[in-house]
Amino acid sequence: MLIPARMSEAEEQRWVSVMLDKLAAQESKRVLGDAELTERAERLSAQYFDGRARPTSVRWVTNQNTRWGSCTPAEGSIRLSHRLQGMPEYVVDYVLVHELAHLLVPGHGPRFWRLLEAYPRTERARGYLEGVVAADRLPHLPASRGE
To answer: What's the pTM?
Structure first.
């Protein structure tokens, strides 16, 4: 966050607090519960796979820090990393479609990628996620006060 240099430290702290509260309120509106996540996966399966991908469970997990999602086809379970919460809907939908496709094709071969061609924002979502990964690898510098 950039803050004008003319702000006092007290004004800066107040402004940061206000902005963080706004961001938290926006994010809490966007975070789906597991039940809504399951409904969303079912809608996406119907839309892109004629309902053939039928997950038995879809849920958020906090133990996936190197993957965006995972699927166990034998169980029909899909897990999405909590790090996706608050990202644009089309990105979460892409990860869901990706994992739903694994219920139909377990690996990442040509048949799998042909299934994903049905989702029109695949490349954009993949680019977004690649950008997040790249940003996470950058050295984190101390915040500038706009000076």
So the answer is: 0.74
Q: Is-contact 7 14, C-beta < 8 A?
A: no
Angle, vertex CA 41, rays to CA 63 and CA 66, nearest 5: 25
Angstrom CA distances, 53 to 50, 96, 123, stand at 8, 11, 21
pLDDT tier for residue 16 given thresholds of 50, 70 and 90: confident
Domain locations in the chain as residue ranges: 32-137
Q: What superfamily does domain 32-137 belong to in CATH?
A: Metalloproteases ("zincins"), catalytic domain (3.30.2010.10)
Closest C-alpha to 88, from 26, 136, 46: 26
Residues 6+ apart with CB under 8 A from 52: 45, 104
DSSP letters of 21-82? HHHHHHHHHHPPPHHHHHHHHHHHHHHHHTT----SEEEEESS-SS-SEEEETTTTEEEEEG
